[in-house]
UniProtKB/TrEMBL annotation:
Family: Belongs to the UDP-glycosyltransferase family.
InterPro entries the record matches: UDP-glycosyltransf_plant, UDP_glucos_trans, UDP_glycos_trans_CS
PANTHER family linked to this entry: GLYCOSYLTRANSFERASE, UDP-GLYCOSYLTRANSFERASE 708D1-LIKE
Pfam families: UDPGT
Protein name: Glycosyltransferase
Keyword Oxidoreductase: no
Pathway involvement of the protein, from the record: Pigment biosynthesis; anthocyanin biosynthesis
Keyword vocabulary terms for this entry: Glycosyltransferase, Transferase
Provenance organism: Dovyalis caffra
EC number, UniProt record: 2.4.1.-
Length: 462
C-alpha cells in the first residue's frame, strides 16, 4: 500500500476492555471520543459480562454509535478452565478473558480495513501484546487507574523478585519514587504465597514495557510528579510514552434522567455517598454509616450495595439497613439500592461533597465537577488514589479507617468527618480550581487533548 493512499484512510483502532464497570467505563468513553474524531473503531467485548451494568452500558454504546463495529470475544466456558482461584468474581473473569485470548488472533485478522492500532486493558497486557506483536500491530495499554498506581504496577515485579521477605516499604526507591507505606499497598501484594493479584501485577507490569504506549485516564497538572517520573525513566527504564488523556468525559448515552429529588435541594447542600460498582460494605458497617449520616445533620443521597455483583443484589433495601434506620434516613436524605447515573449526580448543583471509595473513575468524575471528596478507600488501588486526592487538596482521607472490613468505623466518627467535608470552604475552592484545570487539559490545545490528537495523527499514517 502506498503511503499516499494510506494517508487518506481514517485510522482503524480496535479496543478490548476487561471485566467490571471500572475497567469498562474508560474504554466506552475512549471509543466514543475516537469515533467523534473520525477514527474507525472496532469494540471487542468479552462475552458474557460479569455484571448487568456492563451489558447495559455496552448496549447503550452500540445504540448511540452505530458506526462503531461490535465484535464479541466468546469466552471459553468457565468449567473448562482452571483459572488461578480468586474469590473476587471480577478478578476471576480477568483470568477467563486471559485464558480465552488466543481466540483474538483469528478475530483480528478478519477485520477490514486492517487495524492501525490496538488498545487493551492493563489486566490483559501480558497475553495480548504477544498476539499483536506477531502481526506487527502497534499495541497500546489503557491504564484505568491513577498514574501513581501505575508507578507501583510497573515496578512491583522488581520488588517482588528482589528476594526480600519484608516488603515493609515498597522498594520503588530505586526508581526514584517516594516510598509507599505498606498500609497503602493492596494486601495480596504483601503476601508471601502466590495469589491472583500478585500474578496480575507481575505478569502485566513486566510486559507493559513492550507496548507501543500507555494511555492513562488522568491529566498533567493532577499527577505531574508521577507522570514526570514515569516518562523520565525514573520508575523503570525503557518504558514507552505514558500519555495522559483524561479526564475521559462521560458520554451522553451514560446520562439517564436526573433525580427530581435533587432539584428540590439547596445548592451544595447534599453529600453523595457511593462505593462504586463492585464494593459491598458489611451489614454492620452499612448500619454505622447510616447512623453517621443521620447524626451529621447533613442531607445526603446514599447508594447502598449489598453484593459485589449487581445480578445477585436482590435483598430489599429495608432488609439491608433495617426498619428503624430506614425511618430515620427518610427524614434526612434519599437512600436507594440501584444503579444511579453517578456522573449526572456529581454534576448537579445540589451536590456539595462525595463520600467515595476512590475508584479512579469516581475520582475523575468528582474532579470534572469540582466536588470535594471524603475518601474511604476499601480495596486494591483505592488508598493510592485517595492519596492523590488528598495531595491535590481536594479531599480528606482518614487513614485510621483502614481497608474495607478491617474495622467497623463508628457512626459518631463518620458524622464528624461528614460535617468537616461539607463545611470546608477551602476544599471546595480547590476542587473548583482543579475542575478548571481538568477542563483546560481536555480542551483544544490542552495537554490531554494534544496527547490524543498526536496519537490519532500517528495512527492515520500507519
Ligand atoms: N457508577 C454509576 N452508578 C453507580 C455506581 C457506579 O454510574 O451506582 C459508575 C461510576 O460513575 C464510575 C464507575 O461506575 O464511572 C465505577 O468505577 P470506579 O472506578 O469509580 O469504581 P469501581 O466500581 O471500579 O470500584
Ligand atoms: N478488590 C476487591 N474489590 C474491588 C477492587 C479490588 O475485592 O472493588 C481486590 C481484588 O480482588 C484484588 C485487590 O483488591 O485482590 C487488588 O485490586 P487492584 O489494585 O488490582 O484494583 P482493580 O484492578 O480491581 O481496580
Amino acid at each position: 500500500m502506498s503511503v499516499s493512499s494510506s494517508d487518506q484512510k481514517p485510522a482503524h483502532v480496535a479496543l478490548l476492555p476487561s471485566a467490571g464497570m471500572g475497567h469498562l467505563t474508560p474504554f466506552l468513553r475512549l471509543a466514543a471520543l475516537l469515533s467523534v474524531q473520525n477514527v474507525q473503531v472496532t469494540f471487542i467485548t468479552p462475552y458474557p459480562t460479569v455484571s448487568l451494568s456492563e451489558s447495559q452500558a455496552l448496549s447503550s454504546l452500540f445504540a448511540s454509535f452505530p458506526q462503531i463495529t461490535r465484535k464479541q470475544l466468546h469466552l471459553l466456558p468457565l468449567e473448562k478452565l482452571n483459572p488461578t482461584i480468586s474469590d473476587d468474581p471480577f478478578y476471576y473473569h480477568f483470568d477467563v478473558i486471559r485464558q480465552s485470548s488466543h481466540l483474538l488472533s483469528p478475530l483480528l485478522s478478519s477485520l477490514s480495513p486492517p487495524l492501525s492500532a490496538f488498545i487493551t486493558d492493563m489486566s490483559l497486557a501480558s497475553v495480548v501484546i504477544p498476539i499483536t506483536e506477531a502481526i506487527n500491530l502497534p499495541n497500546y495499554v489503557l491504564f484505568t487507574t491513577s498514574a501513581k498506581m501505575m508507578t507501583l504496577f510497573l515496578s512491583y515485579h522488581i520488588t517482588a523478585g528482589s528476594g526480600k521477605d519484608d516488603l515493609h516499604e515498597m522498594d520503588v526507591i530505586k526508581s526514584g519514587l517516594e516510598m509507599m507505606p505498606k498500609s497503602w499497598i493492596p494486601p495480596p501484594l504483601l503476601e508471601k504465597s502466590n495469589n491472583s493479584t500478585k500474578s496480575y501485577f507481575i505478569e502485566n507490569g513486566k510486559k507493559m514495557i513492550e507496548s507501543s504506549g500507555i494511555l492513562v485516564n488522568t491529566f498533567e497538572s493532577f499527577e505531574k510528579e508521577s507522570l514526570r517520573k514515569l516518562n523520565h525513566g525514573e520508575v523503570i527504564a525503557g518504558l514507552p510514552s505514558v500519555i495522559p488523556i483524561g479526564p475521559l468525559a462521560a458520554c451522553d448515552f451514560e446520562k439517564s434522567k436526573p433525580l427530581a429529588w435533587l432539584d428540590g435541594q439547596p445548592a451544595g447542600s447534599i453529600l453523595y455517598v457511593s462505593f462504586g460498582s463492585r464494593t459491598a460494605l458489611s451489614r454492620d458497617q452499612v448500619r454505622e454509616l447510616g447512623e453517621g449520616l443521620v447524626r451529621s445533620g447533613i442531607r445526603f443521597l446514599w447508594v447502598v450495595k449489598d453484593k459485589k455483583v449487581d445480578r445477585q443484589d436482590n435483598e430489599e433495601l429495608e432488609e439491608v439497613i433495617g426498619h428503624g434506620l430506614m425511618e430515620k434516613v427518610k427524614e434526612k436524605g434519599l437512600v436507594v439500592k440501584n444503579w444511579l447515573n453517578q456522573e449526572g449526580i456529581l454534576g448537579h448543583k445540589a451536590i456539595g461533597g462525595f463520600l467515595s471509595h476512590c475508584g479512579w473513575n469516581s475520582v475523575m468524575e468528582a474532579v470534572w465537577h469540582g466536588v470535594p471528596i471524603l475518601a474511604w478507600p476499601q480495596h486494591g488501588d483505592q488508598k493510592v488514589n485517595a492519596n492523590v486526592v488528598e495531595r491535590n487538596g481536594m479531599g480528606i482521607w482518614v487513614n485510621s479507617w483502614g481497608w474495607g472490613g478491617e474495622i467497623v468505623v463508628t457512626g459518631a466518627e463518620i458524622a464528624g468527618r461528614v460535617q468537616e467535608i461539607m463545611r470546608n470552604e477551602s476544599l471546595r475552592g480547590q476542587a473548583m480550581f482543579i475542575r478548571e484545570e481538568a477542563r483546560k487539559a481536555v480542551g483544544v490545545g490542552g495537554s490531554s487533548n494534544k496527547g490524543l490528537t498526536e496519537l490519532i495523527g500517528m495512527w492515520k499514517k500507519f
